[in-house]
Amino acid sequence: MKPPQKRRVSLARVKLQSNTVFRMNILFFTIFLLFSVLILRLGFLQIVKGEDYARAIARTEEVPVNTSVPRGRIFDSAGRIQVDNTPVNAITYTAMQTTKREEMMTVAKELAKLIEKDDDKVTLRDKQDFYIQLNTESASKKVTDDEKTAIAAEAITEKEKQRKLDALVREKITEEELASLSAEDLEILAIYREMTSGYALAPQMIKNEDVTAEEFARVSERLTDPNLKGVNTMTDWKRVKSSDLTILGSTTTPETGIPANKLDYYLARDYSRNDRVGTSFLEQQYEEVLQGQKSVVKNVTDGRGSVIETIPVDEGEAGKDLVLSIDSELQSELEKIVEDKLLQLKAGPSSKLVKDAYLVMMDPQTGEVLSMVGKRLGKDEDGKQVINDYAFGTFTASHEMGSTVKGATLLTGYTEGAVELGEVQIDEPLKFAGTSQKNSIFNTQLFNRIPMTDLMAIERSSNVYMFKIAMKIAGAEYQYNRGLYVAPESFATMRNSFAQFGLGVKTGIDLPNEATGYMGGTTPGSMLLDLAIGQFDTYTPLQLAQYISTIANDGYRMEPHVVKEIRAASRDGETLGPIETIVEPEILNRINNTQEEIDQVQTGMRNVYIGNSGSARGQFSDAPYTAAGKTGTAEVYFFEKDHEMNGQYAINIAHVGYAPYDNPEIAYAVVIPYVTTDPENVPRANNEIARAAADKYFELKNKEAQSASNLIKAPYSNSVVIEGE
Question: Full-prediction pTM beyond 0.90?
Answer without folding.
Answer: no
